[in-house]
Amino acid sequence: MQVAVIPPIEFEWFDRRHGIAYAVLACSLEYALADRELTVIHVALLVFAATVGYGVLMEIGQLFRPDRVASMADAASNAVGAGAGLALPGLEKRIYDDPFFSSE
């Protein structure tokens, strides 16, 4: 019997620094919009669009600088970081509301 081996997914394009920076930006924007009268989906879409849009604009701006290099990989890393940043506050809330982690 022959076992199929799935090759590992390569993330050579992913830049951790970009991912972390844009995750922090997304978390910050999400917390800033938490008191608004918007649904969770609207906040998530707004934050994701604003964060990814900012990252794309930064990459486009680098096209006009001779000492900088615009990269689709960086833009993709920004988008992955933005998505991760949106997930973090939700995880925090679930952990905070879990009776296992409460101090009471």
Describe this structure as you would to a colleague.
The protein has one domain. The chain is built from three helices and no strands. It has helices at 16-32, 40-62, 72-97. The model has no long low-confidence stretch (mean pLDDT 83). This is VanZ family protein.
Class based on secondary structure composition and strand pairing: mainly alpha
Strand content: under 5%
Give the helix proportion (percent range). 55-70%
How far is it from the N-terminal to the C-terminal residue, by CA? 55 Å
Keywords: Membrane, Transmembrane, Transmembrane helix
Organism: Natrinema salsiterrestre
Protein name: VanZ family protein
Transmembrane segments: 38-57
Topology record:
Blueprint: H1 16-32, H2 40-62, H3 72-97
Helix pairs in contact: 1-2, 1-3, 2-3
Features:
mainly alpha
Explain briefly what this protein structure is:
The chain contains three helices and no strands. By secondary structure, it is an all-alpha fold.
